[in-house]
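@channel sequence for tomorrow's demo:
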Amino acid sequence: MFPAQLTDAHINLVLWGLQAICALIFLITGGLKILSDRNMVYMFDQIGLGQWYRYLTGAIELIGAALIVTTTLSGFGALLLLCVALGAVIIHAFILHDSPAVPVLLLLALLVVVWGRSGQVVF
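C-alpha cells (generated this afternoon):
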C-alpha cells in the first residue's frame, strides 16, 4: 500500500538513501583512484590528461562523499559530485567510447539529491 501523499519525512528518507548509496560509490571509486588501482591508472592513461587528473578526481570524490552525508553540507556535496558525474558521462561516452550507463545513473540520483537539498546550497 502506498501513502496517499508523500510527506516531507518520506522525501527525506529517500534523499538520505540516495545520499548513502552515492557516498558509498564515490568513496570506493575515489579510494581506488587515490590508491592507484591498476584499472584506474590505465583508464586515466586512456583519458590522456595525466595521472594528476586521477588524483584530483579521486580527492574530489572522497571530499564529496564526506560532504553528501554531512547534514548541513549534503546539498553542496551532491552538487560537487554532480559535476564529477557529468564529467564522467562525457569522458565515458566521447573519450573512452564505452557505456556511460553507471555515470548517468549516478548523475540522475545526484540531480534528485541536489533538487531535494537545494535549500542548503547558497550562491
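heads up for whoever presents: The chain is about 75% helix and 0% strand.
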